[in-house]
Specification:
six-stranded mixed sheet; 630 residues; alpha+beta; 23 strands
Length: 630
């Protein structure tokens, strides 16, 4: 055996990243990724500072603008808080503004007894992240009767603080341009920013958010009733089974809880927040909510004889059917899994939130027996439905042998590989393009499932009704995950499920129907990042040496000036017009840019859109489309 040289690992192998270089080297540690999510996280991180000032009682209006700067966007945030301190730090002998923007773990929120009793920016690195990942960060501060400014870039200061003279104003202005060498996406999504501002208006009642995107007219977001207004915006009142939402709140020295909930005839929709930051993956406060809520309903149901002695307790899953709820906590020392703050981890909240929810809910149920009865009956109705599905499931889905080798009416052209991690399933619109796609695919790893006719709208259907539909029943068979309580994402046959429909009206209708089905009845497929749709190109540019596909006119106009020599342009109406070579190169090639992932982080927003577009009531759909919020 050869001897090991222990001298090979020495001091020269240790790299020391100065200042904020570590943030530039590993931005995903602080903002999640360097794509669209990370870009928007930078705006959210900046907005949090202004909101914290408003929560502390300084200023009630925040102005946000997005400026078109060519390849990049610049965002500006102006508040009327106390302004960022610019005086010299008593220990470090440097201006506080400079320290906040250039030194790790400096901030007004890091200690238990800070200026902010409860804050969303708990990590104290918001300004550092912005500086580190910026092409340019410009900050102005109106503080103690004077107006100051300073500029930063890529983790460093560009100049010293300038005193611009006396003023009677207070507050902060922050302008930020992303560094193109770090971010893959440098333009903000208008709808995503508007959704974030809308949420913040509900979570901070009394604070006004004024938003201007490019040269568009200003949008104003403001709420007086807070999360009650948010809940009313989430649901169609005609579809609720309670006469009014249930709201309660409790406040202690270092923690606060707000809960509002109702029930509808639709699907569960729960939003959770910690210190005004959306918890995409929920956390311990939601665990406590579910525990306290379930316990309260069962205690009341026994007291009111709505459950017989022989009946089993109502389960948490049974109470989730039709539940629409918002759970918001404020806590002085929040613990998150990472800087992007997607899941709350404070274990003490499980018992505290559970206790608060149990006490308030039990008091409410006893006070309003008709509302309580409606909740219990809704849960027991779901229990009965589960029993019916269990009895009829084997009949509807067939035997195990049929599931395994299934006769799928010729809809499935499967792939030969048995390794899910390399397999893809393309959901194809009709049989007309089947021959083309079969010629284009790799039969070892790419399977095709053809859909016939218009897809059933499953928004208001239960699983028993869905299983009567041949298309969805056979689709569930080929996915091999099972459904309902038997669903297991680990059994999924394909890593990618691709919705491949035309860009015309019929194709959009089918795509929306499939999105509704997956979001409402197999949501883990979206949450685990397995669902995609193929974006049909509008143009193909053919030159002597290459073929370029352009998704829209804008990309076409940007591409043409870069082409040297002669070229030919072909226009497509959709995927159905493409020949096998085009389909293979644009859609089914491993390097294709045509597949767009249904982003798991946007799942809640997706379900909200589906509810409005596919729901029974036309009024929310009309308002939604008129506002251009799709």
């Amino acid at each position: 055996m050869s001897s090991k040289d222990y001298t090979q690992y020495t001091a020269k192998d240790i790299e020391l990243l100065e200042g904020l270089d570590g943030m530039r080297e590993r931005p995903s540690m602080y903002i999640g990724n360097n794509g669209a999510e990370g870009l928007h996280q930078c705006l959210v991180e900046s907005l949090t500072n202004s909101i914290d000032e408003a929560i502390a009682g300084f200023g009630d209006t925040i102005y946000i603008s997005i400026i078109d700067n060519g390849d990049t966007d610049i965002f500006c945030i102006r508040d009327h808080g106390r302004g960022i301190p610019v005086d010299m730090h008593p220990i470090h002998n440097r201006p506080v503004l400079e320290i906040l923007c250039t030194d790790m773990h400096a901030g007004g929120k890091l200690t238990a007894e800070s200026n902010y009793k409860i804050s969303g920016g708990n990590y104290g690195i918001g300004l550092k992240v912005l500086n580190a990942l910026s092409e340019r960060l410009h900050i102005e501060s109106w503080k103690d009767g004077y107006h100051y400014e300073q500029d930063f870039s890529k983790g460093h200061k560009l100049n010293d603080i300038k005193n611009l003279g006396k003023t009677k104003e207070t507050g902060t202005l922050m302008s930020w341009e992303p560094d193109k060498t770090i971010f893959e996406v440098t333009k903000f999504n208008k709808s995503k920013v508007k959704a974030a501002l809308r949420d913040n208006a509900y979570l901070n009642p009394g604070v006004k958010f004024v938003f201007k995107y490019y040269n568009d007219k200003e949008d104003v977001y403001y709420s007086q009733a807070g999360i009650v207004d948010m809940l009313n915006e989430m649901v169609d009142k005609k579809d609720t089974i309670l006469s009014k939402p249930i709201y309660f709140a409790e406040k202690e020295d270092k923690q606060e809880l707000e809960v509002v909930l109702t029930y509808t005839n639709g699907h569960e929709l729960l939003r959770s927040y910690a210190n005004k930051v959306k918890m995409v993956d929920d956390g311990t406060h939601v665990t406590g909510f579910r525990s306290g809520f379930t316990k309260a309903v069962n205690v009341y149901a026994r007291e009111a004889k709505l459950l017989k002695d022989k009946d089993e307790n109502i389960t948490g899953n049974e109470l989730r059917d039709g539940l629409v709820a918002i759970v918001s906590v404020m806590i002085s020392a929040p613990q998150y899994e990472n800087q992007t703050k997607t899941k709350l981890a404070n274990t003490s909240l499980i018992n505290w939130v559970g206790s608060v929810v149990y006490n308030n809910m039990l008091e409410y149920l006893r006070k309003y027996p008709s509302q309580a009865s409606a909740i219990v009956k809704k849960a027991l109705s779901y229990r009965k439905l589960r029993e019916i599905i269990a009895k009829t499931k084997e009949t509807m889905m067939g035997t195990k042998e049929v599931k395994k080798f299934g006769a799928l009416s010729g809809k499935l052209s499967n792939c030969s590989s048995k390794k899910p991690e390399e397999c893809e399933l393309f959901l194809l619109e009709g049989k007309s393009a089947l021959a083309t796609v079969k010629s284009a695919r790799d039969p070892r790893t790419q399977a095709i499932f053809t859909l016939r006719g218009k897809v059933l709208n499953t928004e208001n259907l239960n699983m028993e009704e869905i299983l009567k539909n041949l298309e969805f029943r056979e689709l569930i068979q080929c996915l091999e995950t099972g459904f309902g309580e038997d669903f297991d994402i680990r059994r999924l046959r394909y890593k990618k499920i691709v919705i491949a429909t035309d860009a015309d009206f019929d194709g959009s209708y089918i795509r929306l129907g499939l999105l509704t089905f997956f979001a409402r009845h197999l949501p883990e497929i979206i949450k685990q990042g397995h669902l995609y749709f193929a974006a049909a190109p509008l143009f193909k540019i053919v030159t002597k040496n290459q073929t370029i596909y352009c998704r829209n006119k804008k990309i076409l106009d940007e591409t043409l000036p870069k082409i040297k020599g002669e070229y030919m342009i072909k226009r497509f109406k959709g995927l159905g017009e493409m020949d096998a070579i085009d389909f293979k190169n644009h859609v089914m090639s491993p390097n294709s840019g045509a597949l767009i992932q249904i982003v798991p982080k946007d799942f809640e927003r997706l379900t909200e859109i589906i509810g409005k577009l596919q729901g029974k009531s036309s009024e929310p759909r009309k308002i939604f489309i008129e506002k251009g919020e799709i």
